[in-house]
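Progress report, Aim 2. The chain analyzed during this reporting quarter is listed below.
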Amino acid sequence: MLKDASAAYADLSLTLSEAGAGRPVLILHGGGGPATVAGLAQHLSRIAHTLTPVHPGWDGTHRPAWLTGIDDLALAYLHTLRERRLRDVLVIGSSLGGWIAAEMAVRDSTGSITGLVLIDAVGVEVETEPITDFFALDARGVAEHSWHDSDRYYLDPADVPSEELARRQINMTTMRTLAGDPYMHNPKLLHELGHIQAPALLLWGESDRIVTPAYGATYADAFGNGRLEVIPKAGHLPQIEQPEPTFALIDAHLRQTSNPFHQ
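Predicted structure tokens for the chain:
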């Protein structure tokens, strides 16, 4: 796997892991950081050319002062696709990364993106299904809202090394800066998704209490060409809790949405 710091703008270098060959797949992590999509990236690198960035400000990476919103990230990643002349790109985003993917597709004026996978994504406002205030939860509350099997994945903060706690705190501070106001959504995005014709697969853990499957259904219906698949016995991160069915659905979407005329 190649890691490199790609210059998206003069004062923004993206930390990017690259592996595999084939159709380009951009994999965007959520608030939990790159580790939440590492297994997915490893799986897809066997059949595709994967690009897995670390969002600026996560895991000690530099975030320039002007980068204060999800739209800024979306434009930076679109710029990266153009600079690398990547076409027929499948963009996969988990949670916050799904929001970035949707914002990218709205702004993709050159048609580089030919498929989307949003995994328990935030980013839109659904009045009947409010997004849980993640910042207000303690460690037990995070586990109960995020996982189907919360006992298995709960980590007592007292058992977490201080360096790891500090890393998580910095990540949460960055997430609050980028997505805290308005909280975890763009009020206009739901109404803009209908213009996106790239096929969008929305994967949702049936036990997600951060954003519910009903929220996911409204999200999927807003796309010009979207569909929802609910994954049993999974919460907010089905790629970790139920990797086999999650990967199988993504693999099929990768094959079905490839458009060689866009390469």
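The longest strand covers residues 2-9. The chain has a mean pLDDT of 94. These observations will guide the mutagenesis work planned for the next reporting period.
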